[in-house]
Amino acid sequence: MTTQEVFTSCRSGVAQVSLEVGGEVLTAGTAFLVPGGLMTNSHVLRDVGFDVAVLRFEEMDYGAGIRLARDICLQAVAYDSPSNEHDVAFLRLDEPEFAGRHVFSFGDSDSLAVGDQVAFLGYPFRMQHLTCHVGYVSSLHQRAKVDVIQIDASVNGGNSGGPLVELRSGSVVGIISRAEVGFLADQFDAMIQVLGQNIDQLNQPTGARVVIAGVDPVQGLRASQTAMREIAVNLRRSANVGIGYAFGSNHVRDRLAQQ
Predict the structure, then answer these.
(1) Structural Rg of the chain based on CA atoms
(2) Residue 107's pLDDT is what?
(3) Alpha helix stretches (DSSP H) within 11-52
(4) How far apart are CA 22 and CA 35, in angstroms?
(5) What does the alpha-carbon distance between residue 76 and residue 98 come to, in Å, rounded to a whole number?
(6) Residues 6+ away with beta carbon under 8 Å from 68
(7) How many contiguous H segments (helices) and E segments (strands) does the chain have?
């Protein structure tokens, strides 16, 4: 199949998963329809405290979709594996909005070889429209007994949980999990945290207000710290060296066959 054929035939079965608290979106990922329900990453659901999960397919208005209360969503999880293992979650759902959509089938991830061309679908950076990226398998290895597929394509935040499709057959051979970034992420996280603490401290009420030549230095410092934090967040989000990872789908395929 060509990339265009894969995207055209499969796009209706890929959903954006947004997690909300009090109506505010905290984070988002990708999910896709499989026989019996919906597949995504475990970390998309398990690593975030949320009130409502919203499933939105591409043609639905942004902000609309299938709304599932937290307890209903988690009760629907028929199988999951922690993020440090296969990082998958299968939700046994049969919503009316699923009718007539593409249902993905699993292929054989063991048949992949370095150099094979693959595609993955998803909603990076909370985009409203579904995207499709194409790359090549650059490495096949195991980590803690988990089959890892490394691809030379840019995986970004929001792609997590999307299907990795082998172009020859159009079947799912992996589930997108994470990306490799060009810096030490924990250092950026620490800087973002410190800047946030600085802003909180500067927002604390004080006694006398000092103004120098008509300028409030505290207000200026608050504005500069806020701008620096915003820049750091955007740099962390967008820094990507074009290396993505997916976990092989055979384990999930075999596990679901036992359900």
Answers:
(1) 21
(2) 93
(3) 42-46
(4) 32
(5) 15
(6) 52, 53, 54, 55, 76
(7) 6, 13
For 243, other C-beta atoms within 10 Å of its C-beta total 19
Give the Å distances, CA to CA, from 229 to 24, 73, 192, 197, 220: 20, 33, 6, 10, 14
Measured distance CA(73)–CA(188) in Å, rounded: 32
Question: What's the rounded Cα separation, in Å, for the pair 179 and 169?
Answer: 25
Neighbours of 212 (CB within 10 A): 8
The pair of structure tokens assigned to 71 is 């307890």
Residue 69 has pLDDT above 70, yes or no: yes
Q: What's the pTM value of the predicted model, to 2 decimals?
A: 0.78
Please list the residues that pair with 17 across neighbouring strands. Answer: 29, 55
- Of residues 102 and 186, the one with the higher pLDDT is 102
The Cα–Cα gap between 233 and 199 comes to 14
Q: Amino acid identity of 210?
A: V
Residues 120 and 234: their CA atoms lie apart, in Å, by 23
Range in 3-12, 165-174, 179-188, 210-219 with the lowest mean pLDDT: 179-188
